[in-house]
UniProtKB/TrEMBL annotation:
This is Succinate--CoA ligase [ADP-forming] subunit beta. It comes from Owenweeksia hongkongensis (strain DSM 17368 / CIP 108786 / JCM 12287 / NRRL B-23963 / UST20020801). GO terms for cellular component: cytosol; succinate-CoA ligase complex. One of its GO terms (molecular function) is magnesium ion binding. Keywords: ATP-binding, Ligase, Magnesium, Metal-binding, Nucleotide-binding, Tricarboxylic acid cycle. Belongs to the succinate/malate CoA ligase beta subunit family. Succinyl-CoA synthetase functions in the citric acid cycle (TCA), coupling the hydrolysis of succinyl-CoA to the synthesis of either ATP or GTP and thus represents the only step of substrate-level phosphorylation in the TCA. The beta subunit provides nucleotide specificity of the enzyme and binds the substrate succinate, while the binding sites for coenzyme A and phosphate are found in the alpha subunit. The lineage of its organism: Bacteria, Pseudomonadati, Bacteroidota, Flavobacteriia, Flavobacteriales. Pathway: Carbohydrate metabolism; tricarboxylic acid cycle; succinate from succinyl-CoA (ligase route): step 1/1. Substrate binds at residues 291, 348-350. Coiled coil: none annotated. Residues 20-228 form the ATP-grasp fold succinyl-CoA synthetase-type domain. It catalyses: GTP + succinate + CoA = succinyl-CoA + GDP + phosphate; succinate + ATP + CoA = succinyl-CoA + ADP + phosphate.
Length: 414
């Protein structure tokens, strides 16, 4: 079996289960758990940005401000989404430039992402201070061991992938035993490996303990802070915050669920989610409509093995009625790369003849479907379903065996 078939289930699982937060939202959560953060105020207009800068000056005494585009992607500075303002006029001008821009970073598509908000943050770097240092730190699950771990490095401010490639000896990890949680000696070990001493050592130990408490407390799947800043007066604070939440834990954190920014997500993904469909857009040319995640993964793999490429993962669930089937068709057909659609339904909870009727109704309601549709229905009333498809008079091809369906797809798309 090829690599795409092997890794498809993992990629799908990652994309379905997680929700990203903006930097300002992540910092709010960190602060609530006692983590010291770079203070800032989010703004949606240039005037709001100026007001935020004035308020920060009153509260912190800062005379310079950092304006950061709020999008769900890293590398914002490389695309012009992070800039320093040395006056209120600068704040207004920079905010005018960033808000509304289409920001392209190494982690976005070529189209980039539209910026709707900026975070106006206090400048925490002391001019001409050579004793300030930047640290990389993240908390995440080590899938190889099934344990949470803290990854950290003295090379903060850089892409951690580049550090791992060029200087892997500068990356440290600390695994946490789930039975006892993060222990004090582990936090002290992290501070020691970072070369800290005195007040900075104590501050880092406290920082690490609070960071892990936040990660564990909100059911996060990732906390990444790059950089954690050590100032010349030995303060330790989070200058950035990338936070990803586990969707499966959101029922315990309804306030965090409300932080979801649908503007940052693919509109098709949002539409599918609102319709109750599990959908992930991929790069292939064969649309898939299946009931059940396991069957969907098997369908994608068999398409790949037959020489095709799955264009999506779409699980219509156990109630594949006519309305859901029609909605699924409409979502798949929004992808211009789709050259064929394979419907693979096992009739257990739902009867195959009902699914067949749903396919026929959807085909007639949508109209002008210019790609071949291959339907494979197995289970309850499968024979009746095949007969309905064959006698419908529509350009719909039926199949019995999954490999037969995949080969039919390959034949039709050449």
């Amino acid at each position: 079996m090829n690599d795409t078939a092997i890794f498809a289930p993992l990629l799908i699982k990652i994309k379905i289960r997680y929700m990203n937060l903006h930097e300002y939202q992540g910092k709010e959560i960190l602060a609530s758990y006692g983590v010291t953060v770079q203070r800032g105020i989010v703004a949606s207009t240039p005037d709001e940005a100026v007001a935020a800068a004035k308020k920060l000056s009153e509260e912190t005494g800062t005379g310079w401000w950092v304006l950061k585009a709020q999008i769900h992607a890293g590398g914002r500075g490389k695309g012009g989404g992070v800039k320093l303002a040395k006056s209120l006029d600068d704040v207004k001008n920079i905010a005018s430039d960033i808000i509304g821009m289409q920001l392209v970073t190494p982690q976005t598509s070529a189209e980039g992402k539209k910026v709707h908000q900026v975070l106006v943050a206090e400048d925490v770097y002391y001019p001409g201070d050579s004793e300030t240092s930047e640290i990389y730190m993240s908390v995440l699950l080590n899938r190889n061991t099934g344990r949470n771990m803290i990854m950290y490095s003295t090379e903060g401010g850089m892409d951690i992938e580049e550090v791992a490639d060029k200087t892997p000896h500068l990356i440290f990890t600390e695994e946490i035993d789930p039975k006892v949680g993060l222990q004090g000696f582990q936090a002290r070990k992290i501070a020691f490996n970072l070369g800290l001493s005195g007040k900075a050592f104590k501050e880092m130990t406290k920082f690490v303990m609070s960071l892990y408490k936040a990660y564990d407390g909100i059911d996060a799947s990732l906390f990444e802070i790059n950089p954690v800043l050590k100032t010349s007066d030995d303060k330790i604070l989070a200058v950035d915050a990338k936070v990803t939440l586990d969707d499966n834990g959101l029922f315990r954190h309804k306030d965090y669920a409300e932080m979801r920014d649908k503007r940052e997500e693919d509109p098709i993904d949002v539409e599918a989610g609102e319709a109750g469909l599990n959908f992930v857009n991929l790069d292939g040319n064969v649309g898939c409509m299946v009931n059940g995640a396991g069957l969907a993964m098997a369908t994608m793999d068999i398409i790949k093995m037959a020489g095709g490429n799955p264009a999506n993962f779409l699980d219509v669930g156990g109630t594949a009625d006519a309305a859901r089937v029609e909605k699924a068709f409409r979502i798949i057909l929004q992808d211009e790369k789709v050259e064929a659609i394979l419907v693979n339904i096992f009739g257990g909870i739902v009867r195959c003849d009902r699914v067949a009727q749903g396919v026929i109704d959807a085909y007639q309601n949508i109209g002008d479907i210019n790609v071949p549709i291959i339907v494979r229905l197995q289970g309850t009333n499968a024979e009746e379903a095949k007969k309905m498809i064959d006698e419908s008079g529509l350009e719909v091809h039926s199949a019995i065996v999954l490999k037969e369906a995949a080969d039919k797809v390959k034949e039709l798309i050449g």
